[in-house]
DNA sequence: GCCAACGTTGGC
DNA sequence: GCCAACGTTGGC
């Protein structure tokens, strides 16, 4: 089991919408590093859902439901991939970027180190810490 | 709205 | 292969 974090602007695709729809194909990723991360995802992996830009907080946990397959929305077929995500749990208390920055144990996570990466791995310890913060 | 960080493109 | 120009992301 691996742990991940994905980012989305809530105005583009929100956690609430994922909860409502019950499943989504995580498409549109056009960054090699993010794609490489998605290719490592396996069904059952936990995925923290971060709202960027307007909210800047982790708001819930999704699960990988289907491993990487070709992104049908890509112009260049076979170059990019999607995974299917399903909602798993809400964060009772969204964990803000501020909180992450202030936690000494979380200083190495990609969310801080590589602010533009939209799909990133998390260490199990980091996932546990964030889970505890989010209740 | 601005700008830093970063990725991509294209001329040389 | 280098690097300037440009585009995008995302925090502030």
Automatic annotation (TrEMBL):
CDD domains per UniProt: EVE
Signal peptide: none
InterPro entries per the UniProt record, alphabetical: 5hmC_binding, EVE_domain, PUA-like_sf, THYN1-like_EVE
Residue ranges of every copy of the EVE domain listed in the record: 2-132
Top-rank taxon: Bacteria
Name the UniProt record assigns to this protein: EVE domain-containing protein
Organism annotation: Pontibacter rugosus
């Amino acid at each position: 089991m691996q742990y991940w974090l994905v980012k989305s602007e809530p105005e583009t695709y929100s956690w609430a919408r994922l909860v409502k729809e019950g499943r989504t194909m995580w498409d549109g990723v056009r960054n090699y590093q993010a794609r490489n991360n998605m290719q490592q995802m396996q069904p059952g992996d936990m995925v923290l859902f971060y709202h960027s830009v307007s909210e800047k907080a982790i708001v819930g946990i999704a699960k990988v439901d289907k491993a990487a397959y070709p992104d049908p929305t890509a112009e260049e077929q076979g170059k990019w991939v999607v995974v299917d995500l399903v909602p798993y749990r809400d964060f009772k208390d969204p964990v803000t970027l501020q909180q992450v920055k202030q936690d000494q144990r979380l200083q190495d996570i990609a969310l801080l180190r590589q602010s533009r990466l939209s799909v990133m791995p998390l260490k199990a310890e980091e996932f546990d810490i964030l889970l505890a913060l989010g209740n």
